[in-house]
């Protein structure tokens, strides 16, 4: 008999293909990153991220209502603060009336059911653009983690449901968990960026928040002493196991597409939900290629998010979330 097996029977038409499809994307898969700025009525397109915007608090409230109506129920907040408010210790990050703290409340006011996750890292508040305190050319680990824990507590007090430390300092998940417990925030969760690589795909994000490391003597030009080396795979599992031990409820791999082997490795080793961050550079690459007419935007987008889920992602943080859901919803 030839061929021995006719696998094409299961691909004959869309009905049978959809019947046997292993990975299906739904609005429930997505976490929507949002950038907040001061002001009123602001909807400011980020030049290197076409169709993605910095929003003032009032426009943020409109946006989250729209997301909710599309079935998107979780957001990840980032803020862009004025240069004047930046210092080496991220002092402004702890301001109980700071932009992040007000944004959290505003989202909850506009849309009480919306799950609010907040970015915890010093870079948007650092005059040096680093995720920790800089001293003599070094990013201090323990001192930075202490500030991050206070920052997390301040977000929890403002009403954040989940804290998302994106800095990659050692021990910060434990510091955050302990402080939250001490202060009675037992139910505030932690989504820890556990395998976050020193990637060149973050460029457009740093444009969005004006948070790139500054070019000064004694300030490291990159984040390679804390973010992971992209040649490493086993280390990602090690990082993840430690973060879970320290109290992470959700772990994260970042960026997405180039790191799907890592997602699968971690998926095979741990039993907590895994988030994957499809980062700004991944978004911008597709937008640029589509603008040139070189790639079919929607088709490639759906292929990418499906691949991320197929690799083992339980949660996808993506700037494409709205576009994807509009396609799913028809
Ligand atoms: C920094 C942070 C970065 C991103 C999320 N949090 C950039 C960086 O590490 O420099 C990148 C997200 C993206 O590129 O979409 N704490």
Automatic annotation (TrEMBL):
One of its GO terms (cellular component) is cytosol. Gene3D superfamilies: Aldolase class I. Mg(2+) binds at residue 239. Homooctamer. Belongs to the ALAD family. InterPro entries: ALAD, ALAD_AS, Aldolase_TIM. SMART domains: ALAD (SM01004). The lineage of its organism: Bacteria, Pseudomonadati, Bacteroidota, Flavobacteriia, Flavobacteriales. Its EC number is 4.2.1.24. GO terms for molecular function: porphobilinogen synthase activity; zinc ion binding. It catalyses: 2 5-aminolevulinate = porphobilinogen + 2 H2O + H(+). It comes from the Bacteria. This is Delta-aminolevulinic acid dehydratase. It comes from Winogradskyella psychrotolerans RS-3. It holds the Pfam family ALAD.
């Amino acid at each position: 008999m030839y061929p021995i097996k006719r696998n094409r029977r299961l691909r004959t038409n869309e009905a049978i293909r959809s019947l046997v499809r292993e990975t299906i994307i739904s609005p429930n898969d997505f976490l929507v990153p949002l950038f907040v700025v001061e002001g009123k009525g602001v909807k400011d397109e980020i030049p290197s991220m076409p169709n993605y915007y910095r929003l003032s608090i009032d426009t943020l409230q409109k946006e989250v209502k729209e997301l909710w109506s599309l079935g998107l129920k979780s957001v990840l907040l980032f803020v862009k603060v004025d240069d004047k408010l930046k210092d080496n210790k991220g002092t402004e990050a702890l301001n109980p009336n700071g932009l992040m703290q007000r944004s959290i409340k505003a989202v909850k006011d506009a849309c009480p059911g919306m799950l609010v996750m907040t970015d915890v890292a010093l870079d948007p508040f650092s005059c040096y653009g680093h995720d920790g305190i800089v001293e003599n050319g070094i990013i201090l680990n323990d001192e930075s983690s202490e500030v991050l824990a206070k920052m997390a507590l301040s977000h929890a007090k403002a009403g954040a449901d989940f804290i998302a430390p994106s800095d990659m300092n050692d021990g910060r998940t434990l510091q955050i968990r302990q402080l939250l417990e001490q202060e009675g925030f037992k139910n505030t969760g932690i989504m820890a960026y556990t395998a976050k690589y020193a990637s060149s795909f973050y460029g457009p994000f740093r444009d969005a928040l004006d948070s790139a490391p500054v070019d000064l003597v004694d300030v490291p030009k990159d984040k390679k002493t804390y973010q992971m080396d992209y040649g490493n795979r086993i280390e990602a599992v090690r990082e993840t196991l430690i973060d879970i031990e320290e109290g992470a409820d959700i772990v994260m791999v970042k960026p997405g597409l180039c790191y799907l082997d890592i997602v699968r490795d971690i998926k095979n080793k741990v039993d907590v939900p895994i988030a994957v961050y499809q980062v700004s550079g991944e978004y911008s690459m597709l937008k640029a290629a589509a603008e040139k007419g070189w790639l079919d935007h929607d088709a490639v987008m759906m292929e990418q998010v499906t691949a991320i889920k197929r690799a083992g992602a339980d949660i996808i943080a993506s700037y494409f979330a709205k576009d994807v859901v509009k396609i799913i919803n028809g």
